Amino acid sequence: MEREPIGVVGVGWVGLVTAACFAELGHEVWARDIVPEKVESLARGEVPIHEPGLPELVTKNAERLHFTTDMAAVLEQTELLFVCVDTPPTYSGDADLSRVRAVVERLPEDAEHALVMKSTVPSGTGAAIRRDMPGLAYVSCPEFLKEGSAVDDFLNPDRVVIGSDPGDEWAADAVASLYEPLGGEIVRTDVASAEMIKLASNAFLATKISFINEIANVSEEVGADVTEVARGMGLDDRIGGAFLKAGIGYGGSCFPKDVSALKQLAGNSGYHFQLLNSVIEVNELQKRRVIGKLTKHLGSLVGKRIALLGLAFKPHTDDMREASSLVLSARLQGEGAEVVAYDPVATGAASGLLTGTDFATSAEEALDGADGAILVTEWPEFADLDWAAMAEKMRNPVLVDGRNFLDPEAIRAAGFRYEGIGR
Ligand code: UDX
Questions:
Q1: Residue 230 phi/psi, 5° resolution?
Q2: Number of neighbours of residue 216 by Cβ within 10 angstroms
Q3: Beta strands across the sheet bearing 6-9
Q4: Per residue in 34-66, pLDDT tens?
Q5: pTM listed for this prediction
Q6: Which amino acids are annotated catalytic?
Q7: d(CA 273, CA 283)
Q8: How many Å lie between the centroid of ligand 1 and the Cα of residue 233?
């Protein structure tokens, strides 16, 4: 069967996963980025991000993956253009749509091409683009993949949201048929609702995290264990157990940006979204609460050497965007501490961002001589450390487990003073 060729514009995280997965499904994919060095290295099969399974897919489907800087080539080969460019927050907290606009301005206003928006954009973006370019078909197809399991999320979606407005059904039908083999429920709706589904989903998940973080903080006061509380809550189908892990706050490229974008979107429309203000504030405070857990055991942090275990915003990625480690490192140094950090893959990405921080090449090296440690990212290898040997190596065996990742009893038995979050 002849498969529809796919155009991908913007080969970042979402773009590269989209390109590689459509190639895996048998489509010829024409993927365009403006950065020539990135295109050249991708054409050589080099994947610039750490994402499990992605290099293998890129290598396996190399013949069907065409990386280019030439938009004309993409337009010539494909009808459906998946737009996957960045929409970073601006100073006002609105999403910066300049990269989306730069793409749209280069598109011919013909009846053959359809723009399929995967980038997260505020509700109303589709309507604005259609106003500017009434001849171009527009489909909203927001992306829900998680870093670290992006390939699996793409190939096994819970649901695929496809939004279109009257006149563009042909394009929405074409997009739906691309996703049908994957088996997730396909939600057909209008463009504004599809855009809102994406922002609301991320804001809701962030709200769940801030909620459980506050429950954790109260649990500390009343002697409850938040992991037990979350387990008991999560078994209620109406609540669900996912995203109820208390810790040192959410980070990454999506939650902080999308919560803020939804708040601004509401504000710009004249609605004050009170709940999201709290979600954001709780998350900011949660990163900083860790300092108090250290001072409880160590007193003043002036001159103390504190090890950060894990730097990325979550495990299985080297992404440092909005990582809690950035705030922690700066805050610890603000308290006069020396910071030494280790991450299995994110050290390269972190080195320019974590100023004044020493980097170790292993967890053992980071802990050697340290006065305290914070587990920031729950990399599996930290569960396998010989913690009794680590306690020996440290000057003061104090551990704040920022992700409630380790077994408190085992860590205490290994000789540590252990502090979790909400237990
Ligand atoms: C998220 C959404 O899950 C995804 O659907 C969307 O497309 C992009 O944003 P991602 O940013 O890759 O994905 O990471 P995710 O696994 O959702 O975690 C986000 C942050 O929340 C991480 O910092 C993580 O540590 C934190 N988190 C997650 C918690 O603190 N507790 C939880 O229970 C879950």
A1: -65, -40
A2: 25
A3: 65-68, 29-32, 6-9, 80-83, 114-117, 137-140, 159-164, 185-189
A4: 999 999 999 999 999 889 999 999 999 999 999
A5: 0.93
A6: 254
A7: 16
A8: 19
Residue whose entry in the numeric block shows the structure tokens 């010829």: 28
Which residues 6+ apart lie within 8 Å of 63 measured at CB? none
What is the arrangement of strands in the sheet containing 398-401, beginning at the earlier edge strand? Answer: 358-359, 338-342, 305-309, 372-375, 398-401, 417-419
Distances in Å between the Cα of 409 and the Cα atoms of 5, 241, 415, 417 are: 55, 24, 10, 10
The residue contributing the CA closest to ligand 1 atom 13 is 146
What are the pLDDT digits (tens) for 141-171? 999 999 899 999 999 999 999 999 999 999 9
- 421 backbone φψ class: left, alpha, beta (φ>0; ψ -120 to 50): beta
Backbone φ, ψ for residue 398 (5° rounding): -115, 130
Q: Whose CA is nearest to atom 2 of ligand 1?
A: 146
Q: Coil, strand or helix: which one is 367?
A: helix
Distance 131 CA to ligand 1 centre (A): 34
